[in-house]
Amino acid sequence: MVDRSPSRPTRPGTVGRGGLPREQVPSHFDDGAADYDRLVGMNPGYHDHLRASAARMRLPRDGAGLRLLDAGCGTGASTAALLGVAPRAEIVAVDASAGMLERARTKPWPASVRFVHSTAETLAENGVEGPFDGILAAYLLRNLDDPDAQLRRFHDLLRPGGVLALHEYSVADSPRARLSWHAVCWGIIVPLGRMTTGGTALYRHLWRSVNTFDGIGRLRDRVRAAGFDAVHSETMTGWQNGVVHTVLGTRS
């Protein structure tokens, strides 16, 4: 229901694409971490759709011999999705929010899963280096200051033949999707966030950031421009149809 893993801060007071000043976003996710799993659990399809995006990566052999990156793992929902389709893979899961990672680490994981506190832009500085056979980035790209640079970094982190999956909200190309997103945010997400956490800043940030993000066509174009081949997208079922998408690309 809410997204996570904001990028590095911009200048103090700078308001990013989503409305919150960038330097405030990590602390909002830290503050919301305790209620995050409960909130997304109320969102029909949330976990199923993450698993769908992971399955669309078509990782072979249950992940045996593969090394995967979960970029923007939050409290581990996307990590669990990757683990579900590739139980034999090594998974490195990273997030910029210490509070979200603290929640993730309390859950039972096999030794093949490792969590790292890092922004997407500073992976190497925090000991996360390629090559990877697959990268899943869920609800991440829209929160970055320079999504094109990050897509190029993802490309460079992949082995030849490696696959990138972006699991992301995108409504700009569809009036129906924009209307659905507005109705769900102001009818459910924002009121539920207020009732659960006592605040709405993070949920209003979510609403704004999706409204101002790329249409799905533009997002596919970004992935192609970063050097990926076989770029395509698939959407989800339920109210998320046309709202939540998987964009896939392969490094040649």
Automatic annotation (TrEMBL):
Source species taxonomy: Bacteria, Bacillati, Actinomycetota, Actinomycetes, Pseudonocardiales
InterPro entries: SAM-dependent_MTases_sf (IPR029063)
Keywords: Methyltransferase, Transferase
UniProt EC number: 2.1.1.-
GO biological process: methylation
The name this protein goes by in its record: Class I SAM-dependent methyltransferase
One matching Pfam family: Ubie_methyltran
Gene Ontology molecular function: any one: methyltransferase activity
Cross-referenced SUPFAM superfamilies: S-adenosyl-L-methionine-dependent methyltransferases
Species per Swiss-Prot/TrEMBL record: Pseudonocardia tropica
Segments for region (Disordered): 1-32
